[in-house]
Amino acid sequence: MKARFQVQDLWRKVKDFLLNAMGKEFLVFLFFLALSAGFWLLQTLDETFEAEVKIPLVLVDVPEDVMITTPLPEALEVTVKDKGATLMRYWRHSMQPILISYRDYQGSSTNGMVRIMQSDIQKAVQSRMFSSSRVQSIRPDTLEFFFNHGRNSTIPVTVAGKVETNPQYYLLDVSTTPSEVRVFAPSSMLDTLLAVRTVDVNLTDLKENKSVEVALQPIRGAKIEPSTVTLTAMVDVYMEDVVEIPIVSLNFPAGKHLRTFPPTVKVTYTVGYSRSKDVKQKNFVSVVTYEDLLVLQEEGATKIPVRLKTIPEGVTNVRIEPSELDFLVETVNEDE
Length: 336
Known about the structure:
The protein is an alpha+beta fold. It contains 6 helices and 23 strands.
């Protein structure tokens, strides 16, 4: 009820304004403004302009046993020069599509490719124009499409671009679903095609597993099914662990025995949480051979540097403490 009174009050104020002298002058001003705008529009529509018109393209008469691997563009972009009134008619009414018949060009194909002559394009475009219109340019100026008769192959997918984790994490795996796609193309292309690449991805600072849908890079002359894949980045967090291992001596002659001080070393390492259960003490091996010891003694060394002969897969940032050991070679009487 209150809103209705407000509307009535507003209408009364407007009516009072239009009926007084100032309101009448305002109405006269609006009349001449509309009149001048109409004259300006008429004059403008009589001038010559350039405008862009889109004409749809449709490929017809394609046999059932033929697959179009790379189709024609959806439309031609035509720059037309004419009076404004004529250009308005192009915009007000949708353009009739240009029909390209496959049968007209099937005999001129080269390795599954058909190229339409520029003169044919210009003739088809001009047939859609008014006689007063002048075509200034046509884009694209070359039309082509590719086809085959079902020849295809299964090709693996590779990921292009950047997939990176946060510094505290690492990339466990990057995969696509499906991992392979079917490519329809001429035999000459299929024989040399090793992989289908995704468009460049940009995944950075990952802290958890992530899946995104990614398009595949189009290949001229080929059709890819499917045209998109699901990219999955598996992320794992780093953890630090410590094991204590002995020093193993090898190739020492009978009666010779190596003692190190201390007899064991601590190995600190970084590994992904998912792999941590698979890493055992026995996977780390530090070996000192008799031949290495003789070289050290000849060089006057008093300590043995500790080096790991084997390191488990997935282990990084390995640190050994102590990194050098005092040693003693004992002579043992085996007869005793």
